[in-house]
Amino acid sequence: MLISEVGEVQLIKRLTEDIKNDPNLVVTGIGDDTAAIKPSGKKLQLITKDMLVEGIHFLRESISPWQLGRKALAVNISDIAAMGGVPSHLLTAAAVPSDTDCELVEEIFRGIKDLCREHSINLIGGDTVGSLRGITISITLLGEVGPEQLLLRSGAREGDLIAVTGFLGTSAVGLELLLQGDSHEQAWEKEVLKAHLEPPVRLKEARLLAETGVVTSMIDLSDGLQKDIGEICGASGVGARIYAEQLPISEAAREACRSLQIDPVSLAFSGGEDYELLFTFSPDKLSWLKDLWESQMGQKLLVLGEIVPKEKGIEIVDSRGGKLSLTRRGFIHF
Ligand SMILES: [Mg+2]
């Protein structure tokens, strides 16, 4: 049934009837003029917002409605995680053409609500309106963090090591594959597509890093390593040296790069939307953090570079220290 046949009131009822918020945090959610939530002690309030526009950020034929809803929330959670925080409350806004199938909108919201349940996030309000063309989804996410655990981009110091929570370039090569069309049945194809369509949520990792007290700066990788380490360097007044051979690239991404004839190192350096966390810490904490990371996360700590003086800028070097110049493949808005 189309939205125009169901009407806004019925649509919202269908989208929200299965929402169960935590009564200890939410006095009233959807159903009154505004939501009323309880303030939480001495913690800092984190607030973030992201918008996904059809044709700009996604193509309707390339992502399922469930994945679209999930991703819209996942990228916001990633920003809260990057501050060392925990997400708590969510407001949604959707603009949808009136000739859209009701089921499609319900699937988008199912993607959002499934991720809410997984991470105990309360969906407390939103707005659903008509659109003349294309779907737009915007999410406002609230979170919190203890003041002593807040992680900013501005804390990196010369000599700090740079590490990341997972593989790089997988999402970007997934997007390349997706834009080629065709069906993708091989395991490596499915793996890189999933990285793009269902990005990871690194909340557990963010909590562990924030609690260590040794992380000096952190950012989530939305625009790619090259651009995002640039954000840390800009905010901290430093430069960065990245070791090409230490860039973590999955076997699946290497296979996809071979098939698409893309240089995996360039891709790992500049490809966006991996939504891993990039962070810095003092080199004298390396062995301690390595042990902690391996015991808590069951995987190796992925160190890929070091912070250098500002004058050096951002450079990527090979194993002999030779500077590499790579084709930039990052995506710049406007
Ligand atoms: Mg971010």
Topology of this structure?
Elements: H1 3-6, H2 8-16, E1 26-28, E2 36-37, E3 44-53, H3 65-82, E4 86-96, H4 102-118, E5 122-130, E6 136-145, E7 161-164, H5 170-179, H6 187-197, H7 203-212, E8 215-220, H8 225-236, E9 239-243, H9 251-260, H10 264-270, E10 277-281, H11 286-297, E11 302-308, E12 314-317, E13 323-324
Parallel strand pairs: 4-5, 9-12
Antiparallel strand pairs: 1-2, 3-6, 4-6, 7-10, 7-11, 8-10, 9-11, 12-13
Task: Outline the structure in words.
By secondary structure, the protein is of the alpha+beta class. The chain folds into 2 domains: 3-149, PurM-like, N-terminal domain (60s Ribosomal Protein L30, Chain: A), CATH 3.30.1330.10; 153-324, Phosphoribosyl-aminoimidazole Synthetase, Chain A, domain 2 (Alpha-Beta Complex). Helices cover 36% and strands 23% of the residues. The strands form 3 sheets. A 7-stranded mixed sheet has the order 8-10-7-11-9-12-13, with helices on both faces. Strands 3-6-4-5 form a 4-stranded mixed sheet, covered by helices on one side. The chain has a two-stranded antiparallel sheet with strand order 1-2. A hairpin with a 7-residue loop joins β1 and β2. α3 (65-82) packs parallel to α4 (102-118) and α6 (187-197) crosses α9 (251-260). The longest helix is centred in the first third of the chain and has 18 residues, at 65-82. It is globular. Bound molecules: magnesium ion (MG). Magnesium ion binds at residues 79, 82, 220, 222.
